[in-house]
């Protein structure tokens, strides 16, 4: 064992009691706060060795590893070779400035994304000072008592103390793909890692069952820390969007290198200086594909992810951002996503009577009343009611704490349904700690997705009380008797039908139903799900979220279909779907899980009917995979919500896996692309909108950069071909590349998006960033800018009679300001001319202000003016510059209006 872990050799071979004694911890109390602090000082935090994905030096060096910088270096070397030291130094300064801008922006973006990952850190249920608490996994220390349940990611090496049908996926550590059954009994000292049934290791996942374990090792002292598996797996990958941008950049570089070469040759043939034309060609090549492309892409993605995080959507994978904008179908769960997941038991159905219960949420006060009778009853005097309430409290893994939160409300840990059962018990004066003291729990049979039930065994005198809760059909099938006012009676087929009808009646009101049963046995290893005495039903109200109706309508307006896929009953699913506006008809057919036949043998008509169905109920995990595949085969981009461990395969298969942050299991969160901190459906819609906005922002700044750069190539190329004076010099091109290209593009990249984003259909995920229509826009806009620049050059030389240096100053300034105003041509064609996402973007105005100041400094600061070869324009010349630079803006708006008119 490493030195920073407790000195326990082969803990798998020692008894649980021996381990607890060595670690000096009481399994029922856990560690105290003072003991936790002492052990953290001694053993450190529970985390693997922290390594940043990319450190600052690496990001800085990457600014110099590009063909762009290499071209600038060649330009500087040529300048030095021909004795032009001033220009050579200027190019070197441009390289450094460019590297500084790229370094600062990319460093902030990378650190922002790393910080976002910290927001979705794993948590663990631990017993401390006698109470179960939810704590960050980093806070675990050796000796902590960890409570395990299906769906948990194991966050430290544990020696098992209790295990009920416990299985773990240890593939990350051992490579074993099949879940491993666990037990408490010690194994031999020489047992291999994969066979240590009494141990659970950090980085593995609980696939089934429940249990408890004591922390043996944390952090780098764990088996996972020893092999550094997680660190080795942490490889940075480019997103498909970044890869497409890189491919676009590479292609443009080689195309423009060819163009620049032709310009250079044309200029030399025309008798221009060889050095000037070579430097001009290189500067054009640099200008054609701005270094700003990857920088702005990174910033746009990071900024969008932060916006999503502020709206409760955490992105696990960067590639999910662009896929979100293309989502066409959302398969959503009901409980907690479309509803509040604020469970309250409102009714209890017993044989021959129904009892209503007042009080909502975590309110511990409430009255029990019979139907048609306003007088309250004492639940402790009602034997059948008390038995049912005790069963709900005993067959339970949740906990209510005596401590209150800042709002003075009771705090709870656990599944909301189980919390609601505990609260109902408290209303009747039945506290779980008191019941457990009276009837200690000796065994738990964890909830199983196949059996749809959970059971606990509690000691009562010389026997054991078995408490069961689960789905009505499962509990009825396991029941032989029923509790009535006359005592225990045989459960007849007529009674079963009657309970099914009562269940339907309650479910039609939108209530969630849980069935409860119990029995007494003499052996704590007895089969729990046979010969049960059926007690009745608990009906829970889970109100629909208020904001869901508007969110679903927004999805429908955006061309996104919303489909409910739930494990709940058909009538409950239909009721909630109607309440939130998912369907209009109250009697719409609901597809039942048992009616989903083998998908491979279905004909096309049946497949299409299933694709069109809005509600699926009683759906099993395997069927969720089939439904995702069904929609994907139809060409849909599918987002899928999930919270349980059984949802993990579906979350992985979906194009966008969405896990619940509050009620979701750790395994579901690990498998998902996005985590909802508030579990709300409306947050998915916000994330989709942001995904669309990010894609559109990237498209806008690419179109902006390319149209500006193509204009620079055309300006110099046409002038060189006709043997006219060059409208802009090499250093001026580089200056524009740094100023008018980068800052407005950055501003476009972080815009919030147009208000009409969710009124358009999703974009095709296979669609290139720059489509044919965008290339046409680039051609039109760059041509207009080119003629405006060449026009003022001709005006200055032929009409105004200005010297060549002053004429070039006017053409340079016209090009610079035309590119700045050109940012307003990036508005969507159907957006308002004055009120749109460009004019509302404060970063655009900030970028324009900064660029104007830098241009004025270039003209009026003698050193910069001499370096760039600029002279000071007169007031009249400034008027000409302003007029000509506004021409591309005005004509661009007209083009945009015409483009909108042809598409409507």
Description of the structure:
The structure is a single chain. With about 900 residues, this protein is of the alpha+beta class. It has four domains: about 150 residues, Calcium-transporting ATPase, cytoplasmic transduction domain A, CATH 2.70.150.10; about 230 residues, Calcium-transporting ATPase, transmembrane domain; about 160 residues, HAD superfamily/HAD-like (Rossmann fold, 3-Layer(aba) Sandwich), CATH 3.40.50; about 190 residues, Calcium-transporting ATPase, cytoplasmic domain N. The strands form four sheets. Strands 10, 11, 12, 13, 16, 17, 18, 19, 20, 21 and 22 form an eleven-stranded mixed β-sheet that branches. Strands 8-28-27-26-9-23-25-24 form an eight-stranded mixed β-sheet, sandwiched between helices. Strands 1, 2, 3, 4, 5, 6 and 7 form a seven-stranded antiparallel β-sheet that branches. The N and C termini lie far apart (about 70 Å). About 0% of the residues have low confidence.
Assembly type of the chains comes to single chain
Helix percent band: 40-55%
Please name the CATH architecture of the largest domain. Answer: Up-down Bundle
The whole-number mean of residue pLDDT values reads 83
Number of domains: 4
Main sheet? 11 strands, mixed
Spans of 5+ residues with little confidence (pLDDT < 50)? 228-237
The H-level CATH homologous superfamily of the largest domain, spelled out, is Calcium-transporting ATPase, transmembrane domain
Tally of individual helices: 30
